[in-house]
Specification:
- It contains twelve helices and six strands.
- By secondary structure, the protein is of the alpha/beta class.
- A six-stranded mixed β-sheet has the order 3-2-1-4-5-6, with helices on both faces.
- Strand 5 and strand 6 form a beta hairpin.
């Protein structure tokens, strides 16, 4: 079977975690390949996500590397056994891989935490709000791509339709509430919908108010997708040139601490709803 030309973010992550285990063991890829019954190229392809790997081989590699974290190994085996393609694969070749990677990340997350400074959380944006963002004067997207992005972003919300949806702590700065993308009517519709979302069982909405003097660290939006074990968490950062994914454990802890600080600085859920309704009433 030829190597995959474009592995998904999930496949690449499995390979990256296996590489971390090998490097922690201080073992060269050539030696790991030989002990697995192959060669260095085989290990390189597996670690790059270009070759699939069975759960049995994941356990064999863990044994070779003397890896003892059973929960992590079990989680990696579960990743190796995944065969069902997600709905986002329908958009491969239509939208860039960054869009698909984000949807895949949200789908597999055990829990989600985010902070938005200027815009609403993407997964909770209304159709009119999404369209307003993608048809601004600065946008140069053709109409069919705009439609694809709108449809795709709305479909991401399907994770909350599952029998056991993930918990989502959405921290939103007051600045985002007061932005009027698309005009007053669109902005009010978005605020009304966010108020509805705040009552969903697994969603916690908290607003960081203008009056807050204790939180100045965040200048950009970020999403923290928790894994079934801490090592498999991912931070997604928005960027004008596409999303950036961070998986380094030290950095994950840093961003987790930043979100902790932001949550402590935010209003309570009840106070956040009151502010949300007040801003909407002013439109």
């Amino acid at each position: 079977m030829p190597p995959r030309s474009r592995p998904t973010a999930r496949q690449a992550r499995l390979g990256a975690e296996l590489r971390k285990l090998r490097e922690a063991a201080g073992m060269a890829a050539r030696e790991a390949g030989a002990r697995l019954g192959g060669n260095q190229a085989q290990i390189s392809h597996i670690e790059a996500g270009r070759w699939g790997v069975s759960a049995e081989r994941v356990r064999r590699l863990a044994e070779i590397y003397s890896a003892s974290d059973k929960r992590l190994i079990d989680a990696l085996c579960a990743m190796a056994e995944e065969r069902v393609k997600g709905w986002w694969e329908e958009y491969r070749g239509v939208l860039g891989p960054g869009f698909l990677n984000l949807a895949e990340l949200e789908h597999h997350a055990s829990y989600l935490r985010s902070i938005q400074i200027v815009t609403m959380p993407g997964i909770f944006q209304t159709e009119e709000y999404i369209r307003a963002i993608h048809t601004s004067r600065a946008s140069v997207l053709p109409d069919d791509e705009v439609e694809g992005r709108v449809e795709f972003r709305l479909k991401r919300r399907s994770i909350f339709e599952r029998e056991a949806p993930p918990s989502f702590v959405a921290l939103v700065h007051e600045a985002a509430l007061r932005m009027r993308f698309g005009g007053r009517k669109v902005a009010k519709g978005q605020l009304d919908y966010l108020a509805e979302v705040s009552h969903w069982p697994t969603v916690k909405l908290r607003v960081v108010p203008f009056a807050c003097e204790d939180f100045i660290e965040a200048a950009q939006s970020l999403l923290y997708a928790g894994g079934v074990v801490p090592q498999l968490g991912t931070v997604h950062l928005d960027s004008p040139v596409g999303g950036i994914s961070i998986t380094d454990e030290v950095q994950l802890k840093r961003f987790g601490n930043l979100l902790d600080v932001a949550e402590r600085a935010s209003l309570s859920e009840r106070e956040s709803r009151r502010l949300l309704h007040r801003v909407a009433s002013e439109l």
